[in-house]
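Session log. Operator J.P. requested a structure for one protein chain; no other inputs attached. Running the standard single-chain path with token output.
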Amino acid sequence: MTDRTVPRDVVPLLFASMAIFVVTVVMGILNGTDLVELPHGALLAHVHSGTLGWITLSIFAAAAWIFGAAAMPRLLRDGSIVAVILYVAAFWADVAEIRPVAGVLMLAAIVWFALWVFRVRAARQLTVPGLSILLASVNLVIGGFLGVVLGLAHAGLFELSAEIAGAHPAMMVVGYLILAGVAMDEELVGGEGTTRLSRLGIWQAFSFFVAGIALVLGILLDLQPLLGLNLLGEVVGVAIVLVRLRWRLLGAGWSSPGPARFGAISILWLVPVVGLIVYLIANYIEDFEQVPVRLLLALDHATFVGILTNAILGLLLVATAARRTVWAWADQLVFWGVNLGLVGFVIGLIADAPVVKRISTPVMGTAILLGLLTAAIRLRGSEPARAVTDPA
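Structure written below.
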């Protein structure tokens, strides 16, 4: 794992992401155990508080870590936090007319972040995680733009099409989140790709990038060959990751509570995620509206929790390396609780077994909340310190 400091300047992003995610997780526990049936607006707030509040704000912080940037423009940092809160509130209120306004503010923050990433990269040697973050930021801009267009359609400015409705989440999940997650994972597990570009690393990053672009264009233009190209890109990307980082995965210190194993388990979650994508496209290519909602939920949570949340929990361990002895007992509970709970949750959805889902939801949710509380206590106690390399 790279011995690099998480800049103190981006710690507010981590605190904000954790605070927002607490709300997301509590809503998820209530909904996943079927104790409460969340209204439509609350469900949308749940999704966007996770993808933007928890994940995207953390990715912003991770970009500074990966590129070794000393600081991020304060207006970009604080403005992004405010934009996320306003956007999530707009969904919660379930008033279609105000979503585009909040969406434009969010898109402005996203575009600024992408420009900042490219500017910061210009002064540094490019690595495989760095290239992945650059490409992920491009897809994030595209996904954010599609989200604003979708919001305008919901506000009644023009007729909403199934193509636009499908293209936005497709880009955010397949084009942006998977690519950004892999970038954080590789930085966490380490290897030569974290110090320089390699040919296989370039192929890996562009495989995921092209896969996301192909999927969105295939949905928007209704071109099935592009959906096939998406499948090829995803499968090739995952295969390259597993081949390039195989020894790092084996030596990730699975029994020790460190950042590397979070990156390693996140990489392993790529396999069921891409497997689900292949299954859905292969079986519902003629009409994606026929896809069972439970399978989409399984895909979303395997991506959001399996790939991204694991990666972010690893990032939080890097940021709190000097204080890892505080609540040290919690680290094992968090790692195994999150991942075993998620396995049960995904199996429950795929097998259409509500009892399994209801049992697994509080296990996963409680473990996440414990991880957030532990990270917050450690972050408050000291400045971000240098990462401690996990034992192989």
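Operator note: The chain has one domain: 8-381.
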